[in-house]
């Protein structure tokens, strides 16, 4: 959903090529240039509504539409109308490289099996040196039958076995560290606990990293579902019986995969950055698969060769310079240690064929001219030049790569020398990898020899290999596909071993001396039976290490009970065992989820909704520099520049057949969440918080409030971005309130430690404590705080206690970095803090940029905020869909979702509708200053039906007209101007009976007297605590003055600290709560429109605190209400308070009180009461406590006259320091008989202080 539209679609048949054309009008709404942060700089850029700025800062117009299967598309702009760019825009576009026509980019993507056509273009051209911007055009989308249908892979559900081999029998897991022939003896197998080693069978495909691109399905994506069997060569001594002294050989794939590039004609290596081992499974089930003898291959078109292509890689994975990305480096160079030599294990090099060197080296220098010199055997120097570092904040090196062809290498074991030519002492270099290929003599000098001649396939149908040095009994294995390895017919001929093979396609062979001493696999251990393949369809999969399973069970049980959802809990290792041959690999989780996804077919209800990982992850999956963590992280290819490097949990959510190859433009199909914990206590704390949130019946305006916070500075870019997202939210559903907090609206204070916004900080923390549905922050950040001014720190988040935790969205750098071992970020604290803070967080793991941040947030809000017509999405699915709609490359990948991906926010489910205002239709109604206005309305469902069974209360907030607000311009760079509803006409609560309500109130004298419309926002909750509603109205007018009797006195005030029994001068705790009960027949003025007419509170004569936002009217009574305000962390000493209140006619009253702060003051019980007493049906126990805002746990006990425990219940719901418990005179021993009972309340504060009080209860029979 975007703010520019495709208008009036017209479909008609094309006149040729059987094409159908869809015509749509596009008309970008151009704005003044706005500031955009880019990797290169921060500057103004041309802009229009909904623009996504690319890496060069150019505004991109993008849209998506549903696409058909087996359809090709051609897109063009017709009837384009352009306007000259302004002088400012022209200057900003200099050196932009724009052409004289618009270049349109099209691609297709998939979301939950539905295809989309994605279109993007920069709507600016440069014609004869003049920049012009698109004003309007017809977008023509031509739909044509595809030249070829997409590959039919049959029934997707049929790709998967119904049961895993691991479901029964004894299994042992083994590992290898390198590719090649491995040996297991009879004794080795018996030592693993098998009684019948003769029946040995090996399963799996080892440690090569799985193909990430599912578009290659059926080729390289995965060898076979579950565990394929590995052919073995059996040496049984010739007696046909496998017995002691005998052994099996098999070819194993290690963690480094050797890939042959058909186009270049040479090998290169790919490391598995998840694992340093490859794994297989051993069992003795009587189904041993032995290598089969291959049929003879011969023909007339044949080439004979004594040479084979040999490959060697120079690499040492020792360090990850950026601590990000999947690439690792070794062999460090400096200006003082600048030369290294590497001997190549090549002998008998064919001088008629060149030696190929593919080098990737890393250099770091801020100067021009640094280089690497490569020389083979003191021959010609080849030079590579890394670019200089231009971004010292985020770059740790530049790649210098090159391909060299070296000829006439006559010497065996040639040496490559590398010299680093740095410019300064701080410069350095590393080897990422050097692949060397050479055609060498087939001379067998060890236990095995690779045999491959990939050349001349276009000239010959067959190739004959002549191998020297092969001893008697040497075999030739065909390992082109190791899972189908077979024995090639080979014969001795003139001292050589020869065999012939088809030459039409690439083939790989291995000459093997079975009697040689081959390495043995390591024994990992027994594998418990498991069967993920047999699992039924589910809504959620929780991936949890076994030690965190109790937390996983807590979350799963909640979803099973509350949502009726099927939830599976698995360990990472179980997933690896069935979906990546036991080898850690992130793609295994995609295959696991894809199994459920494919089995669902087109049945949306049967598709999985999310996957949740419990446990932290590291950029260092293999534990090279740090200890390994139980969960994996997917890391980007980019590993040198933080602008484009990231971890991404999104990777686990790409499940369609064509996804995984370009995840920055693809669409996730499920929600993906992570709980970044490092202990069971952390995991359980979050799990309990999630369950508490899901069952939270604390209805209130927090469910209708979305908070938007904007940092200052940088040409107001952050506040502007936050405000645009806030307005986008209002466009979707105006029933929600936007709580706008922009730093530059508050005084900026300068101290020795830097600038700060103490009032903004206080406002944010109070709002978070009270509760807000979503908290969105735009600005600067780090792992430790939000904003340079430290507005929110890790300590603030860790100490933020609220029963209504928010969904945090932080558009700032590094807030949620979670993959650096030993370090914890503020974003992790948001979810990990068990007492509140956040219920979830969409936060950043690396440096991000404002323009793309705004676009992502817009798209996420498109799906996160329900429009009032359809069911709301879970947080995880909203994030997945929003990211899919965002075409912003690497930036969106740096956002991670911490939380339960299938959990939904507490959106009001029903609608509040205004029936009448002042007895008339709202559109014709008018409220006047000093007039008594009335509002009546009702609660209805989404289909417009009155909810007659809805009884409870509705909170009503009436706002004066929307106003233009200017910030304070603290830094002198220009104020930010935005619109907001700043003046409150009435804020109160009224009862709802049988779905209907009505109220009256006086409009204050202080209003904006210009004509215009106001705004009403409703939030309603029922008495049963299981349904709520919200709504709004913006149709009525507010202007003019009504006749009224003049008031001569101000409101009555009764105020105290903490509790009503407070006496002036009494000692209180350092964070006491101030209460002021107010009454006035004309109502209490909280509008904020009149200068000096706010509810005001002075502490020791300091600057007045505005109390308007802390006033709550009493139920069904606009004439009275209460101000509640909590002070935080006051120092010991005596304090004076002065409070002033105004009524609607601007008459005031004020009062004062004093109190003493004593940090040693202990909390105390004010009273414990029981009513009715005597009791015949039930008793309500009520405990009053003098710490109204502190959390405590109260245990209520009832004992009979001889001290026998009769009843116990725990209460932790604190309502202004009051805890309640109802006893129905029942217990496990039956109903209480007549007599005297003792009720006892034991309260335990959050500091662990325990106190008790007792009361006698007389029970009588009716």
UniProtKB/TrEMBL annotation:
<feature type="signal peptide">
    <location>
        <begin position="1"/>
        <end position="19"/>
    </location>
</feature>
<dbReference type="InterPro" id="IPR001769">
    <property type="entry name" value="Gingipain"/>
</dbReference>
<keyword id="KW-0732">Signal</keyword>
<dbReference type="InterPro" id="IPR029030">
    <property type="entry name" value="Caspase-like_dom_sf"/>
</dbReference>
<dbReference type="GO" id="GO:0006508">
    <property type="term" value="P:proteolysis"/>
</dbReference>
<dbReference type="GO" id="GO:0008234">
    <property type="term" value="F:cysteine-type peptidase activity"/>
</dbReference>
<dbReference type="InterPro" id="IPR029031">
    <property type="entry name" value="Gingipain_N_sf"/>
</dbReference>
<protein>
    <submittedName>
        <fullName>Type IX secretion system sortase PorU</fullName>
    </submittedName>
</protein>
<dbReference type="Pfam" id="PF01364">
    <property type="entry name" value="Peptidase_C25"/>
</dbReference>
<feature type="domain" description="Gingipain">
    <location>
        <begin position="541"/>
        <end position="905"/>
    </location>
</feature>
């Amino acid at each position: 959903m975007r703010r520019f539209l495709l208008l009036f679609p017209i479909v008609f048949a094309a006149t040729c090529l059987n094409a159908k054309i869809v015509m749509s009008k596009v008309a970008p709404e151009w704005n003044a240039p706005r500031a955009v942060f880019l990797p290169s700089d921060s500057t103004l850029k041309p802009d229009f509504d909904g623009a996504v700025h690319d890496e060069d800062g150019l505004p991109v117009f993008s849209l998506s539409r549903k696409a058909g299967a087996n359809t090709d598309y051609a897109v063009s702009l017709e009837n384009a109308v352009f306007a000259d760019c302004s002088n400012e825009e022209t200057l900003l576009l200099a050196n932009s490289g724009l052409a004289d026509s618009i270049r349109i980019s099209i691609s297709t993507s998939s979301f939950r099996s539905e295809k989309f056509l994605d279109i993007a273009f920069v709507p600016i051209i440069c014609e004869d040196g003049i920049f012009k911007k698109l004003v309007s055009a017809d977008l023509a989308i031509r739909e044509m039958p595809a030249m070829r249908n997409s590959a039919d892979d049959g029934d997707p559900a049929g790709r998967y076995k119904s049961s895993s081999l691991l479901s029964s029998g004894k299994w042992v897991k083994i590992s290898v560290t390198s590719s090649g022939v491995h040996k297991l003896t009879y004794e080795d197998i018996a030592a693993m606990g098998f009684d019948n080693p003769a029946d040995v069978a090996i399963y799996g495909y080892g440690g090569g990293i799985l193909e990430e691109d599912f578009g290659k399905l059926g080729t390289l994506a995965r060898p076979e579902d579950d565990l394929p069997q590995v052919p073995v060569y059996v040496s049984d001594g010739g007696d046909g019986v496998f017995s002691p002294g005998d052994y099996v050989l098999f070819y194993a794939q290690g963690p480094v995969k050797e890939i042959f590039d058909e186009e270049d004609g040479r090998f290169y290596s790919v490391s598995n950055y998840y694992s340093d081992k490859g794994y297989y499974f051993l069992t003795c089930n009587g189904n041993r698969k032995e290598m089969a003898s291959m049929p003879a291959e011969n023909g007339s078109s044949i080439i004979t060769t004594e040479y084979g292509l040999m490959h060697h890689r120079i690499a040492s994975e020792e360090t990850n310079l950026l601590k990000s990305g999947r690439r690792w480096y070794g062999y460090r160079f400096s200006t003082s240690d600048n030369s290294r030599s590497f001997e190549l294990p090549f002998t008998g090099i064919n001088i008629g064929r060149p030696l190929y060197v593919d080098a990737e080296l890393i250099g770091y220098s801020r100067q021009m001219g640094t280089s690497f010199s490569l020389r083979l055997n003191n021959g010609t120097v080849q030079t590579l030049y890394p670019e200089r570092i231009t971004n010292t904040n985020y770059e740790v090196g530049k790649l210098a790569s090159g391909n060299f062809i070296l000829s006439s290498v006559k010497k065996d074991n040639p040496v490559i020398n590398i010299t680093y030519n740095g410019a300064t002492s701080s410069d350095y270099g590393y080897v990422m990898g050097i692949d060397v290929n050479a055609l060498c003599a087939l001379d067998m000098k060890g236990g095995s020899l690779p045999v491959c001649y990939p050349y001349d396939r276009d000239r010959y149908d067959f190739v004959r290999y002549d191998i020297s040095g092969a001893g008697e009994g040497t075999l030739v294995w065909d390992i082109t596909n190791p899972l189908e390895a077979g024995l090639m017919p080979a014969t001795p001929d003139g001292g050589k071993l020869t065999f012939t093979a088809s030459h039409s396609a690439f083939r790989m062979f291995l000459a093997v001396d079975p009697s040689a001493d081959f390495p043995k696999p390591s024994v990992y251990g027994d594998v418990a039976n498991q069967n993920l393949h047999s699992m039924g369809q589910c809504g959620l999969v929780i991936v949890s290490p076994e030690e965190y399973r109790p937390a996983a069970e807590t979350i799963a049980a909640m979803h099973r009970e509350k949502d009726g959802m099927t939830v599976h809990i698995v360990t990472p290792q179980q997933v690896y065992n069935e979906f990546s041959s036991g080898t850690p690999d992130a793609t295994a989780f995609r295959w696991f989820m894809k199994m459920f996804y494919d089995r669902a077919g087109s049945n949306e209800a049967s598709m999985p909704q999310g996957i949740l990982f419990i446990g932290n992850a590291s950029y260092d999956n293999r534990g090279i520099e740090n200890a390994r963590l139980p969960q994996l992280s997917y890391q980007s290819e980019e590993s040198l520049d933080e602008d484009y490097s990231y971890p991404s949990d999104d990777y686990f959510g790409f499940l369609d057949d064509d996804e995984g190859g370009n995840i920055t433009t693809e669409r996730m199909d499920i929600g993906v969440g992570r709980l970044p914990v490092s202990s069971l206590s952390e995991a359980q704390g979050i799990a309990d918080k999630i369950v508490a949130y899901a069952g939270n019946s604390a209805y209130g305006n927090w469910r209708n409030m979305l908070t938007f916070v904007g940092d200052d500075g940088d040409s107001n870019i952050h506040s502007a971005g936050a405000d645009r997202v806030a307005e986008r939210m209002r466009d979707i559903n105006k029933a929600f309130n936007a709580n706008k907090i922009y730093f530059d609206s508050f005084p900026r204070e300068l101290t020795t430690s830097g600038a700060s916004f103490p009032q903004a900080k206080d406002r944010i923390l109070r709002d978070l404590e009270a509760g807000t549905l979503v908290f969105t922050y735009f600005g600067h950040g780090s792992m430790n705080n939000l904003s340079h001014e430290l507005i929110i720190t890790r300590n603030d988040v860790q100490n933020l206690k609220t029963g209504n935790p928010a969904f945090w969205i932080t558009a700032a750098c590094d807030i949620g970095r979670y993959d650096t071992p030993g370090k914890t970020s503020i974003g992790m604290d948001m979810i990990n803090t068990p007492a509140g803070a956040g219920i979830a967080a969409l936060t950043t793991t690396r440096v991000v940029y404002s323009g793309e941040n705004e676009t992502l947030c817009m798209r996420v809000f498109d799906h996160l905020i329900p429009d009032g017509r359809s069911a709301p999405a879970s947080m995880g699915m909203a994030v997945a869909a929003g990211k899919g709609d965002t075409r912003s490359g690497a930036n969106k990948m740096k956002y991670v979702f911490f939380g339960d991906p299938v959990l939904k926010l507490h959106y009001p489910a029903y609608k509040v509708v205004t029936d009448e205002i002042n007895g008339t239709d709202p559109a014709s109604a008018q409220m006047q200053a000093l007039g008594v206005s009335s509002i009546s309305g009702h609660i209805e469902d989404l289909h417009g039906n009155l909810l007659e069974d809805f009884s409870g209360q509705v909170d009503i907030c009436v706002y004066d007209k929307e106003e233009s607000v200017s910030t304070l311009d603290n830094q002198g760079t220009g104020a930010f101007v935005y619109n907001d509803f700043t003046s409150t006409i009435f804020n109160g609560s009224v009862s709802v009976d049988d779905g209907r309500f009505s109220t009256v109130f006086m409009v204050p004298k202080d209003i904006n007297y210009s004509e215009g419309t106001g705004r009403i926002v409703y939030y309603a909750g029922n008495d049963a605590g299981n349904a709520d509603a919200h709504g709004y109205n913006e149709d009525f007018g507010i202007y003019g003055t009504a006749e009224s009797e003049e008031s001569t006195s101000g409101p009555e005030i009764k105020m105290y600290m903490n509790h009503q029994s407070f006496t002036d001068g009494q000692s209180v705790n350092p964070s006491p709560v101030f209460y002021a009960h107010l009454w006035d027949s004309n109502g209490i003025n909280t509008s904020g429109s009149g200068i000096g007419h706010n509810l005001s509170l002075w502490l020791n004569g300091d600057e007045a605190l505005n109390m308007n936002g802390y006033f709550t009217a009493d139920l069904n009574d606009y004439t009275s209400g209460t101000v509640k305000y909590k002070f935080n962390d006051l120092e010991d000493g005596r304090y004076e308070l002065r409070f002033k209140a105004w009524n609607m006619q601007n008459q005031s009253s004020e009062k004062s009180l004093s109190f003493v702060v004593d940090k040693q003051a202990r909390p105390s019980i004010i009273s414990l009461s029981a009513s009715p007493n005597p009791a015949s049906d039930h008793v309500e126990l009520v405990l009053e406590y003098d710490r109204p805002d502190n959390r405590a746990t109260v245990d209520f006990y009832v004992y009979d006259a001889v001290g026998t425990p009769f009843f116990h219940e725990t209460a932790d719901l604190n309502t202004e320091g009051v805890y309640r418990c109802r006893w129905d005179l029942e217990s496990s021993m039956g109903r209480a008989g007549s007599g005297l009972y003792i009720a006892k309340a034991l309260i335990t504060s959050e500091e662990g202080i325990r106190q008790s009080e007792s009361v006698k209860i007389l029970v009588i029979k009716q």
